[in-house]
Amino acid sequence: MVNQDCYILAVETSCDETSAAVVKNGNEVLSNLIASQIETHKVFGGVVPEVASRKHVESITLMLEEAIEQAGISLEKLSAIAVTEGPGLVGALLVGIMAAKSLAFAIDKPLIGTHHIAGHIYANRLVQEISYPCIALVVSGGHTELVLMEREGSFVRIGQTRDDAVGEAYDKVARALGFPYPGGPHVDKLAMESQEVEELPRAWLEPDSYDFSFSGLKSAVLNAVNQHRMRGEEGFEPGIARGFQESVIEVLVEKAIRAVKSTDAVQLLLCGGVAANRGLRSALTERCEREGISLLIPPFSYCTDNAAMIGAAAYLKWKQGEFSGLELKAEPSLSLESWSVAAK
Ligand code: KG4
Ligand code: ZN
């Protein structure tokens, strides 16, 4: 099976992006279409699950057709259909799963239920080979984790957020500063342009802990904003954005570097929507250069949710012949460890 080319049609509908892609051999993207629902959810200030499901239903069939057409491949040539089975919003996941199952059944191809975070991590393989053992720093709207990967497809979570995910904290801070959803890119831009920096706390937790906490920082930002407003001050937003971004980056970078040094890791991978953060990308790049650590960061287009990353992760299961049955269910809190690929 591994000697022939593998073409995976991948589907991602875990949150507010409907995406379909065709990926060859786990690293060559033949097509990657993304229909974002951001404009729809913006008016509500966040993702409304019911609305997300309905939007996925409206666009999924067209996305699948387009992904196949743009890849210039026939359905018969596909090796498997992959779909995000979790974690994510249950109703949103279900839309992708039903579409993938129906197609897999109709054209008699294997189905591969795929973990969303494994997808974010393997987005890195769309640009470069990964070396093992490695550490992945996963920073997205729903997750903030440090993952140790001893070998390809094996995942051990060594740290995670105890409260807000980093993207969630960005979105809440952005809202307090008056930006629309999703606010991460706005805070990033303001922070990068700011000459001022307002000092904000860092949550290091226990000295040996790889866990994170961002709710204290978020509350400190909200307090600072209120105080400025009560005093009738203006123009404080850039300083807060930069202070917040510096606090987040310092903790993420320190913990990730410590995780690499205290394991046998030969590489650090950054991934997830917040990996698009310019401040984080440059701070991590600079620190890894100084420490002589090999760092992989996906290009911006593969940081936020997309189906190509799901095709990249599903390839690991395809190589081992680990397929899902048609009874595949949406798993809103699917664990990453449990999705690990069996050792060869
Ligand atoms: O991975 P993703 O697309 O969705 C989840 O799986 O959660 O991540 C979306 C998150 C949002 O919270 C968004 O604000 C954040 O990534 N984000 C950023 C930036 N671009 C996207 N956060 C900080 N700086 C950015 N440039
Ligand atoms: Zn994601």
From TrEMBL:
List of residues binding substrate: V138, V139, S140, G141, G142, D171, G184, D188, N277
Name listed for the protein in its UniProt record: tRNA N6-adenosine threonylcarbamoyltransferase
InterPro entries linked to this entry: ATPase_NBD (IPR043129), Gcp-like_dom (IPR000905), KAE1/TsaD (IPR017861), TsaD (IPR022450)
Function according to Swiss-Prot or TrEMBL: Required for the formation of a threonylcarbamoyl group on adenosine at position 37 (t(6)A37) in tRNAs that read codons beginning with adenine. Is involved in the transfer of the threonylcarbamoyl moiety of threonylcarbamoyl-AMP (TC-AMP) to the N6 group of A37, together with TsaE and TsaB. TsaD likely plays a direct catalytic role in this reaction.
Reactions listed under catalytic activity: L-threonylcarbamoyladenylate + adenosine(37) in tRNA = N(6)-L-threonylcarbamoyladenosine(37) in tRNA + AMP + H(+)
Gene3D superfamilies assigned: 3.30.420.40
Entry EC no(s): 2.3.1.234
Taxonomic lineage from the root: Bacteria, Bacillati, Bacillota, Bacilli, Bacillales
GO cellular component, one term: cytoplasm
MF terms in GO: iron ion binding; tRNA N(6)-L-threonylcarbamoyladenine synthase activity
Family: Belongs to the KAE1 / TsaD family.
Gene Ontology biological process: tRNA threonylcarbamoyladenosine modification
Cofactor(s) of this protein: Fe(2+)
Compartment annotation: Cytoplasm
Cofactor remark: Binds 1 Fe(2+) ion per subunit.
Binding, Fe cation: H116, H120, D305
Primary location recorded for the protein, binned into one broad class: cytoplasm
Keywords noted in UniProt: Acyltransferase, Cytoplasm, Iron, Metal-binding, Transferase, tRNA processing
Residues covered by the Gcp-like domain: 28-311
